[in-house]
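re: ur question from the group chat, yeah i did fold both. here u go
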Amino acid sequence: MARQRVRPILSDDMNPLGMLLKTFRERGGYTRDGLAVLIETTYNYIYSLEEGLKRPSRNKLLSVAGVLELNPEETNQLLAAANFPTAASPQRDQAIRLLESVLNKPGDTQDFIRALSDFVHRWRDNQQSKAEAVTQAIVPAGGWQYPVLGKRFESTLLHAIDEAARAGITDVIVIIPKDALPLQTVLSAFPRIARTFIQQEANSLGQALLAFHQSYPVTHATAVILPDEVDRKGKGSATSEIVAAYNHCHRPVIAVNVSSVREMKDQARYFGIAVLGKQVDLGDQKMKGMLHEMKELHEKPGEQTRLRSEAKLICGRYVLTPRVFDALAAQKPNRETSKKPFRYELTEALNLRGFDAPYVYTFNRDLDPLAKIREMFRSIDSDSVFDFKKYTRDET
């Protein structure tokens, strides 16, 4: 009895899968034997596919596409030729295969799983923050301000809250020391958006932010405005600018003065320093030249520190993501080497990597720093109230 001829699944006169597979294979310089070895099958299997004698699985076709380095369009052509749904994102299938290749290897994969889980959680947080506006700001004023300024303490806060309101922020938390008097002037001037948080222990900016986060966990991007630096030249637009920058990049944003740190060397010991990396192009002309990658951060460098030309003074304006607050909480004192009280440092928490890494926003001006404000207070009567709101509007 004569042997029956095996009928191809795809007809002899119309075999798009076989023709495409052969074209892509020969373009890549592979023989049937060579391709078979790379996708862990046999010569006869590749021959049957090209002749229309067999129909492959979808995963096997994707393996072929990976070996032949097909682009997304070519991969979809191959899938369609075998009557499979095309991949909305071939990269997704390739990522799944990559993960499977690691997980299926013998040995302990627990470290990999933990790292992957952490990455996925951070990615989800980042994606969620992209859809949310910055509506909250923290004004830390629990340190030197109240003991030094006394009755004039409240007047230094008004400009910061006004600046936040101009940026569309609807919830402003003013952090004050436990011995400060109630902020009657502030709360009456901004009754709908301002509230206070009492800091029990004044230690550092990082500690103030962490204390608030531990009481009221920060789950959205939040602006931070230091009231001892006034945006006089920008007429109170500083927070609006960094919020706009965040809305473009969806990363933590650190604001710096336009002048090089070398031009402001006398002030460098009072401020953090950001060393700028390469410019970030987000396709917006308004942001051109304003955003940079962060190369380094330094917390109040000493007089002997060598200051680089691309270093800038951090000027008291930030947009921080929840990951920054989590990084603050993760800081721990080294009990073996440190005898001083432990300081939670914001600059250390901002040394993040990947899509958590902050960008540096350069103002086109310098904010008036602490030293200049102190000089102004010396020149006015101790019982008078300084009008910071007017000061931020006047250029004289």
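okk and heres the other one u asked abt
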Amino acid sequence: MSDLKPIYFKDIQRFNQIWIWIFILLICGFFWYWFITQVLLRTPLGREPVSDAVVIIFWLIFGMGFPLLFLLTRLVIEVRADALYICFFPFHVSFKKFPYEKIKKFLIKWLAQQSRSERKDKEEFERIKKDLMAN
């Protein structure tokens, strides 16, 4: 990937809001409690407890995997001369390229649709379209 243009701007976003982590830790805490109680302490939970194998599978998915997924997840946006590059790790391992020409075409279509649906001033729409086409 040595043919990439220099980076003008780079933004990295993560799940670091406290309300998200409270929600995740509550879910995670329940599965840890279930795992410790039934598998380690040998005290079945409920009237008809599931097998230890099922508890271990759910603990691995929701007690370990779910919080780990949110720890690793990040959105990286890079602004380069030729396009926007976006990577949503771990779902995208490499960057996805969005050329500026495609963004301009979409923006013009979106503005046209907005001007029809909201009855905006047509002169303003034409001015914005002209500015977009000039760049």
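fwiw on the second one: Strands lie at 7-14, 74-80, 83-89, 96-99. The two ends are 26 Å apart (CA to CA). idk if thats what u expected
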